[in-house]
Amino acid sequence: MEHGRELVTFARSVLSPDLDQLAAARRQLLDCMGPAAVVSASIIAAGFSLVDRAANAIGISVDEMVLTPSKDFRERLGINRFPSAANTLGAT
To answer: Are residues 41 and 18 part of one domain?
Structure first.
């Protein structure tokens, strides 16, 4: 992918609380790929967030086939400490 770095930077910044970082990533993506790419990337990010939040809100748990191989990095990244882990990961 020719502009993969800009897309990854944008995706990471969407998850960051740093609004300046998000604005910079958005400008970089705009400069490299144009307004349609910014809109598309934003819609994709919003869609993933929506699906994740909806699944968590209704208590859909993560399948064991995902839990077992992800245990190591979930612990390293602190994912199990998020309040929503009690619903989706069965963590306490």
So the answer is: yes
The 8-class DSSP code of residue 82 comes to: S
User: 74 is written with which tokens?
Assistant: 């979930």
Alpha helices in 1-92 (DSSP H): 4-14, 19-33, 35-57, 64-77, 85-88
* Angle, helix 19-33 to helix 4-14, in steps of 10 degrees: 150
pTM reported for the whole predicted model? 0.60
55 class by beta-carbon count within 10 Å (0-12 exposed, 13-18 middle, 19+ buried): middle
Same-domain pairing of 22 and 33: yes
Residues 77, 54 share a domain: no
Domain membership of residue 9 as a residue range: 1-58
Q: Mean pLDDT, to the nearest integer, of 69-79?
A: 87
Higher pLDDT, 26 or 52: 26
Q: How far apart are CA 63 and CA 25, in angstroms?
A: 33
